[in-house]
Amino acid sequence: MHYYLSLIAFIFLLMALWLSWQNWLYFRRLRLQKKIAHEPFPPEWLPWLERIPHYRALPDDLREELQRKLRYFIATKEFIGIKIDVTDEMRVVIAFYACLLVLKIPNECYEALRTILIYPYDMIAEQISAEGGIYRKEKMILEGQSAGETVVIAWHEAKRQAYHLRNHNVVLHELAHVLDFEEGGFDGIPPLERSRLDEWSRILHRHYCSLHERAVKNRDWGRYRLIGEYAATNEAEFFAVTTELFFQKPLALKKHFPDLYEEYREFYGLDTASLFKNLE
């Protein structure tokens, strides 16, 4: 009996410590947010932001909101350079696209994300694949990678994509993976209200299966050419690639996949086809 009472007391102690830790983190976030709200935005950061087409397209109210999130992101993440010195330009450009992604998602600023590793150029990584019992080791060139608390970004690509609009954006892609992982797995399902989960899963799974079938059977790509073969890798990559399109080519995504666009418009809280229509 004494053993069980001690065990229960120990469990309650752990719960109390966990709640205290969560309360401390909550009030720490509030203090930092209040501090940021009362301080001017660093003027030396503005020239880099003003070079970014997406930033120039935002109305003033969204710019101000993004600036607050950007400063919070930079203050709470560790930026580490690998064979490169980290500069404020790197922090600002990477933080801009990270925060654009969650600009209208309430209380979302990647709390689980701790570290941004920045490489000067693309990375070469080895991947082991298996097919029919035969294992192959392949080398892959990566612009970025996401693994739980850490995101890896190749700066040369991130900078080029930020200042010169393209279909692809490595920061949007990798941070979409971070959102995906918040629900506990890389499955293409970010944090959603329960009432929207079934519709989201149905629409994304249907389009993913159609794309995957075309990739496997080498069929006519049709409208799926917009999304591309890499998105057929798995549903996590499908979500990340189509998230890029939602911000980079929103008019095309809305035209060819209106149901997919609508799901993303509701989740991200932005009508990107209207906001960024002049960027295509």
SSE layout:
Blueprint: H1 2-37, H2 46-50, H3 53-57, H4 60-76, E1 78-81, H5 88-101, E2 115-119, E3 123-131, E4 134-142, E5 144-147, E6 150-154, H6 155-163, H7 170-181, H8 194-217, H9 235-248, H10 250-256, H11 258-268, H12 272-275
Parallel strand pairs: 1-2, 2-6
Antiparallel strand pairs: 3-4, 5-6
Helix pairs in contact: 4-5, 5-6, 5-7, 7-9, 9-10, 10-11
Tell me, what is the CATH class of one domain? Answer: Alpha Beta
* Alpha-beta classification: alpha/beta
Biggest sheet layout: 4 strands, mixed
How many helical stretches?
A: 12
Low-confidence stretches: 128-132
Mean pLDDT reading: 84
Question: What CATH architecture of one domain would you give?
Answer: 3-Layer(aba) Sandwich
Helix coverage percent: 55-70%
Task: State the order of secondary-structure elements, H for helix, E for strand.
Answer: HHHHEHEEEEEHHHHHHH
CATH topology annotation of one domain: Collagenase (Catalytic Domain)
Total E-strand runs: 6
Shape: globular
Radius of gyration: 21 Å
Distance between the termini: 71 Å
CATH superfamily grouping of one domain: Collagenase (Catalytic Domain)
Structural overview:
- The protein is of the alpha/beta class.
- It has a domain at 183-280: Collagenase (Catalytic Domain).
- The chain is 56% helix and 13% strand.
- The protein has twelve helices and six strands.
- The strands form two sheets. The chain has a four-stranded mixed β-sheet. Strands 3-4 form a two-stranded antiparallel ribbon.
- Helix 5 (88-101) links the parallel strand 1 and strand 2.
- Helix 7 (170-181) crosses helix 9 (235-248).
- The radius of gyration is 21 Å and the shape is globular.
